[in-house]
Design a protein that fits this description.
Oligomer: single chain
Radius of gyration: 16 Å
Number of helices: 2
Distance between the termini: 24 Å
Structural class: alpha+beta
Order of helices and strands: EHEHEEEE
Shape: elongated
Strand order of the largest sheet: 1-2-6-3
Helix content: 10-25%
Length: 98
């Protein structure tokens, strides 16, 4: 179950979405996971009720930089992102145990 959810997304953009709609949370998930697997994993991990899930598949960006030895080029890893809508009134607090 825990191999489906890789980590929660805590970026400026995702925080802005969560502040506007407090029952929406973003997660980076396994690329092979489907919506039902993501739903059961989140419900069992955080003890919340999931209403809706939107998933996005991101392709890795190509990056290059100039160094002493010439141009070094590579690629970021591709990943899958899930925006989870929780039942009204429920939230997930990631910073409670810090």
């Amino acid at each position: 179950m825990s191999s489906i959810i890789i980590k929660p997304i805590v970026t400026e953009k995702q925080t802005a979405i969560s502040e506007k709609m407090p029952n929406r949370v973003g997660f980076r998930v396994s690329p092979k996971a489907n919506k039902l697997e993501i739903k059961t994993a989140i419900e069992s991990l955080y003890n919340v009720t999931v209403v809706k899930i939107n998933t996005m598949q991101y392709d890795g960006k190509r990056k290059s930089r100039y160094t002493k030895s010439g141009v070094v080029s590579g690629k970021e890893t591709s990943f899958k992102k899930a925006i989870v809508t929780l039942k009204e009134g429920e939230t997930i607090d990631f910073f409670s145990n810090i």
